[in-house]
Design brief:
CATH class: Alpha Beta
Low-confidence stretches: none
Number of helices: 9
CATH superfamily: NAD(P)-binding Rossmann-like Domain
CATH topology: Rossmann fold
Helix content: 40-55%
Largest sheet: 8 strands, mixed
Mean pLDDT: 92
Order of helices and strands: EHEHEHEHEHHEHHEEH
Shape: globular
């Protein structure tokens, strides 16, 4: 018996890396899995259908239940078709794990419009589309009087929470995902849907290139803190019935560490009770900055 017995899960970008580990662990915990992946390179080029089917084959060979999906999750209609595939194949849908993403590392001053459009499309629209179609399915069930115990699990990043040098588009997209999660949690809780996000640190095609030394494999016999499989237990728990009381949270996970990210909160304020003269503002801002917590540095900043 696993903690996700009988649940149906869609995992986007699950042909490799962290997503693959999510798919394998959900299957080990009894879930039926839609393994979605276009098989693209880390910059979004060269699509192939091989990775998703390979993961499906691994799951079914171990006695699990899975089906491959080559749907483009950033295409509104295609994402809807993927949701319908899960429902038609497994009789329902309980969890959407939005994991698909690409990266275009570039200093902001050198960034191009096409790079921004590609990154924002895959991350932001790619997170919104499948969850939107799933939410419509869950709302219809709720209106029909059926109990809903569903999950949206999004993938943000430390880059989205604190920023990262040479990753302006990626950071902006991942920050948007964290905000999207808060809205989903607030709007969908009344119909039995939770929404949470994670900011994982693990070895993937994206991180191996950017952080080669940090992401190196551990010596034989030592705990490999950057193994992407370390991220999946939290994700699977969030997808289970046990997590029903947890929503609107962003988790940081790295190796054996699970933490909660504390995002924007109202900080120090001063109300004059009247309109400010521009010449007065500087002194007030200086006082507010002195009272406020020191921000976490941007990743990669010296």
């Amino acid at each position: 018996m696993g903690i996700c017995d009988g649940r149906v899960v869609i995992i986007t970008g699950s042909g490799r890396g962290i997503g693959r580990e999510h798919a394998l662990e959900f299957a080990r915990q009894g879930a039926s899995v839609v393994v979605n992946d276009l098989g693209v390179a880390q910059d979004g080029s060269d699509p192939s259908d091989t990775p998703a089917q390979s993961v499906v084959d691994e799951i079914t060979a171990s006695g699990g239940s899975a089906i491959a999906s080559g749907h483009d999750v950033a295409d509104w209609d295609s994402a809807g078709e993927m949701v319908q595939l899960a429902i038609d194949t497994f009789g329902g849908l309980d969890v959407v794990v939005n994991n698909a993403g690409i990266v275009r590392d570039r200093m902001f001053v050198n960034s191009e419009q096409a790079e921004w459009e590609a990154v924002l499309r895959v991350h932001v629209l790619g997170h919104a589309a499948a969850a939107r179609h799933a939410a419509s399915y869950w709302r219809a069930k709720s209106k029909a009087g059926e109990a809903v115990d569903a999950r949206i699990i999004n993938t943000s990043s430390g880059a989205g929470l604190m920023g990262s040098i040479a990753q302006a588009a990626y950071s902006a997209a991942k920050g948007a995902i964290a905000s999207l999660t808060l809205v989903q949690a607030a709007e969908l809780g009344r119909i039995g849907v939770t929404a949470n996000a994670l900011a994982p640190a693990a070895r993937t095609r994206m991180t191996e290139e950017a952080f080669k030394d940090m992401m190196a494999e551990a010596e034989e016999g030592a705990f490999d803190a950057m193994d992407p499989a370390n991220v999946s237990p939290l994700v699977v728990w969030l997808g289970s019935a046990e997590s029903a009381a947890v929503t609107g949270r962003v988790f940081e996970v790295e190796g054996g560490m699970i933490g909660l990210a504390e995002g924007y909160n109202h900080g120090p304020r001063f109300d004059k009770g009247a309109r400010w003269d521009p010449a007065e503002v500087g002194a007030v801002v200086a006082d507010l900055i002195r009272e406020a917590a020191v921000p976490t540095p941007v990743y990669g900043a010296s």
